[in-house]
Amino acid sequence: MDIKERARKAVELKTVGGYNCSQAVTAVLADQTGLSKEQLKQVSAGFCAGMGNLEATCGALIGAVMIAGSKTEGNGTLPVARKMQETFKDRCGAIKCKDLKTMTDGKPLCPCEECVRNAVMIYGEIMGLE
Prior knowledge:
The structure is a single chain. By secondary structure, the chain is mostly helical. The chain has one domain. It has 8 helices and 2 strands. The chain has helices at 3-16, 21-28, 37-43, 48-51, 59-71, 77-92, 97-100, 112-127; strands at 103-104, 107-108. A two-stranded antiparallel ribbon has the order 1-2. Strand 1 and strand 2 (107-108) form a beta hairpin. The protein starts with a helix and ends with a helix.
């Protein structure tokens, strides 16, 4: 599955699969880790609605960074995370859920589905996953 297919699958999991944003991202990138989809679903369960419903960092972005941490085995993860955050902010307009969901002209700055799609795509670009 290429990165665009992964992004589409993540959006599907978020919209009709019963996954939150973080879970959807980690599920489609599970093969990048030594963990199963089910383990990642459990680990990422609390990172929805802005890091545990605090309207803080977007759960989709957190999911991508968690997978990067596993992929890098924790070595050099911080600059990767920073690059992911910067790229996500450039594409989505913010990194905090509260800001992403701020309504302007009847639309959020960046809907959850787009946050999920962008998080997967950004992971692929930064980590070299096509």
